[in-house]
Design a protein that fits this description.
alpha/beta, Aspartate Aminotransferase, domain 1, 2 domains, seven-stranded mixed sheet, four-stranded antiparallel sheet, binds D-malate
Length: 408
């Protein structure tokens, strides 16, 4: 009989969001009259921006002609999209990132997992706790961890607690680690890192030869003009960081799929024999072998985000979700609940009421208010006693959900 990848057997329970969906389905089947409002998974709800739709329609029409037809595209993405991204997202903020260093993909979730293909097995890995579960699970699947303990922490990983005490931005590790996952604005806590905090990470990584995997999927939600959007705004980051970005949340592409990863030229790793190897070449090789690129139609849609109309529409979309976040913050605070995040990110992180753990609050909210959120403990042991509400929903649903929560 075929052997399975035993690393998968180390994984605790199901992936968080399918597990939530399973519980909600069971509840809805038992209570078919309940109007369930989902503020759990961070999936967008508002329509695709018109500029993107117009560009995608034009691309479909072009595909229907001999001259405009496109077969396999470049595995790295079309140059016109990579150039638009380099100019608008990076160079305009003073980051020295070129089109060649941008790899278009079908998602940051995929890229932040796939990156392990080019990284060695002996790396000491640091993740925050709580954390976006993909970073942990993908390391478990790739055999980079030991077994989980009673609270779900895997052997071999260094967990950096993010708590109210440290403003939900992790302390620099005291010991040596080789690979550090950072996500700012943070999923799940909604916290954001200042320039000084990111500089401390970059300084640590440069001094110790570590690599930072920086997930900036929520950068478009930053409201404070002083805050950095990219790790490359910090001097020296090109020597120690890879950055992931996505069109999912700012432009509503969760179902359309388009994202990007920046791998700077000259960013080096070490082979087993001590030879220095450029990570760009390895990632390029990995993508050319295992990936055939994002569809021409979708990349044309993503390109339209950078047109003047696209910029205005995307800004309006993110502003809409941030208004939702403000409503959630205001209503929860009025209900006497301690809230964090939600000011520079579309996630509100809240302390569960006295006497209820994360899943206990989940069940109570679902059963009594028919509102779905995400238990903090699903993001890590230090998330126990916390809960995440997503601002991704219609205004009417957010207002109704908050009305029900306040009535509890
Ligand atoms: C979340 O709810 O945390 C999101 O769905 C993350 C993601 O985009 O995969």
């Amino acid at each position: 009989m075929v052997q399975v990848n035993g690393n998968y057997l180390k994984l605790k329970a199901g992936y968080l969001f399918p597990e939530i969906a399973r519980r909600v389905k069971a509840f809805s089947e038992a209570n078919p009259e309940a109007q369930v409002i989902r503020l759990g998974i961070g999936d967008v709800t508002e329509p695709l921006p018109e500029a993107c739709r117009t560009a995608m329609k034009a691309a479909i029409d072009a595909m229907g002609t001999s001259e405009g037809f496109h077969g396999y595209g470049p595995e790295q993405g079309y140059p016109w999209l990579r150039e638009a991204i380099a100019r608008h997202d990076f160079q305009s903020r003073g980051c020295e990132v070129s089109a060649e260093e941008i790899f278009i993909s079908d998602g940051s979730k995929c890229d932040s997992s796939n990156i392990l293909d080019i990284l060695g097995e002996g790396n000491r890995i640091a993740v925050t706790d709580p954390v976006y579960p993909v970073y942990v699970d993908s390391n478990v699947m790739a055999g980079r961890t030991g077994d989980a303990d009673g609270v779900g922490r895997y052997g071999g990983l260094t967990y950096l607690p993010i708590t109210a005490a440290n403003g939900f931005t992790a302390e620099i590790p005291s010991g040596k680690v080789d690979l550090i996952y950072l996500c700012f604005p943070n999923n799940p806590t909604g916290a954001v890192a200042s320039r000084e905090q990111l500089k401390a990470w970059v300084d640590y990584a440069r001094a110790s030869g570590a690599l930072i995997l920086f997930d900036a999927a929520y950068e478009a939600f930053i409201q404070d003009p002083e805050l950095p959007h990219s790790i490359y705004e910090i001097e020296g980051a090109r020597e120690c960081a890879i950055e992931f970005r996505s069109f999912s949340k700012n432009a509503g592409f969760t179902g359309t799929r388009c994202a990007l990863t920046v791998v700077p030229r000259g960013l080096m790793g070490t082979a087993a024999d001590g030879e220095k190897v450029e990570l760009w070449g390895l990632w390029n090789r990995r993508q050319c072998t295992k990936f055939n690129g994002v569809s021409y139609i979708v990349q044309r849609g993503a390109e339209a985000v950078y047109s003047p109309e696209g910029q205005a529409q995307v800004k309006a979309l993110t502003a809409f979700y941030m208004e939702n976040a403000a409503i959630i913050r205001r209503e929860l605070t009025a209900a006497g609940i301690q809230v964090y995040g939600g000011e520079q990110a579309p996630y509100v992180w809240l302390k569960t009421p006295e006497g209820l753990d994360s899943w206990g609050f989940f069940d109570q909210l679902l059963q009594r208010a028919h509102v779905v959120g995400t238990p903090g403990s699903g993001f890590g042991a230090a998330g126990e006693g916390y809960f995440r509400l997503s601002a991704f929903n219609s205004r009417a649903n957010v207002e109704e959900a908050m009305r029900r929560v306040r009535a509890l």
